[in-house]
Amino acid sequence: MNGLHALFKPTGIAIVGASEKVTKIRGRLLKLLVDGGYQGNIYPVNPSSPVIQGLPAYPNVAALPDIPDLALIAVPAQQVMQVLEECARKGIKAAAVFSAGSAADPVGSRLQDQVAEFSQRTGLRVLGPNAEGFIDTINRVIATFSPTMQMSSPVKAQGPRQGYVSIVSQSGAMAFALYSRACADYLPIGHLVSTGNEADVECAEVIDYLIEEGSSRAILLFLEGFKNPARFVEVAQKAAAAGIAIIVAKVGKSTAGQRATVSHTAHLAGSDMAYDAIFSRYGVIRVDDPEEMIALGSVVSAGILPKGKRVAIITTSGGAGGWAADICEEAGLSVPELHPDFKAHLRGIIPDYGSAENPVDVTASVVEDGGVTLMAILKEVAGTEGIDIALVIVSLVSPERLGQIEAPLSALLSGMSRPMLFHSPGTSHDSARRILMQAGSAQLNLPVFARAMNKLADYSDFLERRRPASSKTGQPQPTVTAVPYHRDLLSDTDALLDAYGIARPAEALVRTPSQAVAQAQRIGYPVALKVISERVPHKTEAGALALSLATDAQVAQAFEQVVANARNYANDPSIDTVLVQKMMPPGRELMVGGIMDPDFGPMVMLGFGGIYVEILRDVTLAPAPLALADAHAMIDRLKGSSLLRGARGEAASDVDALAGLLVATSHLLNDAHQDIGELDFNPVIVYPEGQGVAVVDSLIVKKTIVPEQATPACHTATAAGG
Amino acid sequence: MNGLHALFKPTGIAIVGASEKVTKIRGRLLKLLVDGGYQGNIYPVNPSSPVIQGLPAYPNVAALPDIPDLALIAVPAQQVMQVLEECARKGIKAAAVFSAGSAADPVGSRLQDQVAEFSQRTGLRVLGPNAEGFIDTINRVIATFSPTMQMSSPVKAQGPRQGYVSIVSQSGAMAFALYSRACADYLPIGHLVSTGNEADVECAEVIDYLIEEGSSRAILLFLEGFKNPARFVEVAQKAAAAGIAIIVAKVGKSTAGQRATVSHTAHLAGSDMAYDAIFSRYGVIRVDDPEEMIALGSVVSAGILPKGKRVAIITTSGGAGGWAADICEEAGLSVPELHPDFKAHLRGIIPDYGSAENPVDVTASVVEDGGVTLMAILKEVAGTEGIDIALVIVSLVSPERLGQIEAPLSALLSGMSRPMLFHSPGTSHDSARRILMQAGSAQLNLPVFARAMNKLADYSDFLERRRPASSKTGQPQPTVTAVPYHRDLLSDTDALLDAYGIARPAEALVRTPSQAVAQAQRIGYPVALKVISERVPHKTEAGALALSLATDAQVAQAFEQVVANARNYANDPSIDTVLVQKMMPPGRELMVGGIMDPDFGPMVMLGFGGIYVEILRDVTLAPAPLALADAHAMIDRLKGSSLLRGARGEAASDVDALAGLLVATSHLLNDAHQDIGELDFNPVIVYPEGQGVAVVDSLIVKKTIVPEQATPACHTATAAGG
What we know:
Chains A, B: It holds the Pfam family CoA_binding_2. By secondary structure, chain A is an alpha/beta fold.
């Protein structure tokens, strides 16, 4: 068990600042704890009265007759430190500090630093400040003042298969907002922890505690940013090993500042993409909105994940079924042909004017016999092959629809090996939602259903890949480099790239037109010319490159032109060095890059090049180093990946060579992450299967030690793109 | 008034098949009509009993003591035609046929044809068959058997500004599903019409009726396809003129069959894109899911549209505010800096640890004084400038939050000139939703809020553009063509394109290597060679083109090669014609195309070329002919449009020239739509501002009269792409 046992499973609880008035935070805290049925001793602490809410109260912490594990501190911010010191002196092991003030304002910020120092010094673990507390519905510890607790009642996990879902949130309001939504949908919430400003205890550590505690099957995490990103990476791996799903809402995409950068790669990445990369690598499921978060919790709680993306849609309304099919396909699910046996059986059950084709229109008439026909249909759906998910569309406006088949429906669902979920096109009655959740299903709105299933199928695939026996697994292997990495390699990009086996087209540096012609003849026509200068990092806009030169005369003339353009652009008459490079035949243009994320370290980027890269941002990021399987997964995450794999009759590209380049680049980044700031291979031309890739242009930006100085762009040894 | 007055505002109603049993459709129909408070005479018709549900009943239609306008027919499908004939003989003017059977099954299909013929012959207007009836809550005509009516109660439009929303649906189940959701959200529904199989009355005609009837401010349309697309186009224009929003769910994207086609354009279009094009042209708002449909109805019903996309987010929870900002920006809204005066005023109201920056974190403390501070904040928000939409995020879990400020909130909202909407991160109490709707606001989930506002701002812009006084307006102008269109032009594509002023690069047809060299010298190097043959429509895969040829020797050699490749590919040794074309310098590659949509006629397509076109489908379609403003709107609908307009420091492209090409192409398509099946200009190279466009390759597919024969590809006069 990690060190949070005293915080979350305390033997006794002191409430410092407890009040008689239950309309106030300080009174509600005590009342909720008592009403919640906490089994340990409760000690109200307040000098104003010897009895508070019927319990003996104490004037201060020192006067307590016993040493409780935990103190809940609801005194004004100015008194918090004094109370904490008293707690430490008393031997109390943990505290939750509710007092307000965010880390961003002066008062809150000072308290933040003081609490951090205090906790470090005394070992007393502190939740908050500015936390809204925590709850444990299983052991009945309700340590919060949130009024939501008086309006939303938690339910227990039901039946042999349902598991608890817990909520961990840096925002107190979001913690209880999710809680109220979960309760309204009869989702069994085990723990809820509002971590507030995280002066000491941070969300990753809380998740770690919940994994060890063992009652949670899914953790809903509302996140603004990690205090200790590396700790989260560890915890995410532990959760994956334990089969506990972390479902995360990471906010702050829109406000994430874009760092000033030289390379394309860093500009495209932004800090939020690094979170996506980490989440993707470690099987953390990212959600887009609160409703989706609850939906994912519901399905995971029910204990069965979809093993793929094939949906059978069973609908009492053809119109709703058509809409569902559209929404499913839009979200990346498939609505395939169903098994002939299933269709034959179904035709024997449904009216002639129905349809046994997916989406299966069983017609509204099947619900008119008290549920007998509906159950017969659902049994057929449960038994058929070739699908991963069943979606049943039926009106749940009335409580009777499911009420009359509650027992057989529960029995059917508990025996199923894949999810069967329900959608009511109109409103859904409270009791219908309860019956479904307790039977291991849920009522979901269509877009949420589609997105949730898509993500859970990916998560299921992730869990499958990480099994030791899986053929899909891939652990990063050290790349065999020609020369081990050492910092001197940075002074010669050619040697660095050679060391990692990253090949470039034939090329030579020249300083005169006649040298250019001689080298062009040696390399073979056509060639490209490119000015090499730190003052001209992006050649296209400077007119500092010439492509497809086919004759000696063209080369000589182009040399004069590009040098003149570059001198003019950079206002630097000393520019004279030009790279002559083999003009590579056209192929798919991609870019491979590297950034050093301040939170998560070296990351490899892959994206399509050309005009769309900036606008559509079809780029993907992954933490270095990469195993070959990781590199293939990166390629598959591109929206345009099917193009590389040979979609629509196009020739397949050499994805194996591209994956190899990604792995090599990832090792370079990992080895040199102390020295390199950014890396761009752009364009990387990918040729048809078996014909390799060409790194046509490269830019490596070294880390600089002088912070105020412009980052120097390292000599770009290979070149011909822009 | 159109001809549906007798159907929807009947003086009297006969219910044929009416039954005593209110659990059955035939009994419920009568009961709902009576309970709903219908003011005209009601005549149950059933030979089994002289009194049904306390009303005098009649053995058949002929026996009725009076001639009601409308008959509701709920007899078995086999008896429907007989009853309809009786109705016609009696002089009844309209009927609604509830009996089942879809147009797709044999029984339903026969009934469908019989009803269509009957209606044509007698002039008796028929709703259905397979309809679920209609309701008019304002005049209290409840002509349906839907059990939803017993569970959902409609509300009246409130206050001076709220307007009614009506539902028109080809799916009966979806009609009442939307109705139940609308009622749960206190959205005032005026009319609901389930049009069923539309043997006679179709949804476009119903919308026309509703526009003339005048009580609807928005119409929610659930659509599978139009019986008469041209009628819908007329009605949509009428709705726009009347300021009535049509909010449509068009289903069937995923099942829309892709026609077998020769050109890229038709392949990319699919039939669903034509609907998007028509909706976009006529200001019809398309939704993605039921929740969004209700949300849009709510906001339109409240009477104020957003005039732009700038959102001020006012939140009691920083976490929820951050999430909202992410979701808004993702959906295309902006969350801008707020006015300095607003920020200054707000700082005087909110605690120090709040933030006056957008999203404005007013902190949870502002709701602790009975709503006084919250109202003060909302007044500041209502009064500030520089925003188009206010989003207030506050917990509505409890009924008290808004209950205590109902009167001042209503007063504030009724005086606002832009929408102020609310979001409760947790659940929202029923009474809070009621208060908001009645005050002209709504509680919306975040993704739905963001998508709805984005669409309504576009709709508002559409309404603005169609005002006669608007400078943004654009009516299609006849293009001045060199030669008026006549069918003979099709035999010479060059003449056809010249007639419409569509210029191509310099070129010549040749049949020998020496001719090729001579023409290349005349045109000027570099050149491209391309084999011209109907057997080789796509040159790249046949190896039938050669690019960037720079010398006589290269041209001569390439001639032999491309001819050999093409002969081999097409297995046709007679191929000998090659086009020599000026090799155009690189630029932005787009494609312009044309299709003849079976529903909506000639359509122009615009898309980015290159590798992404197939995968990302960044293409847009618009009905021909285009005004210049339409052409610019098409360009702006591309995801990559900002690139053409000069985003991220790139040079702006010549969008005016591109728009001109679109207009010319649209007139060509419009003039020649009887003769042309498909048209492809691919690639169209767009050069920097002022430097024009080049139609590098063109393919025109003539319409063929023999249906079984392969569509012949017309000679591709200009060429060099693939």
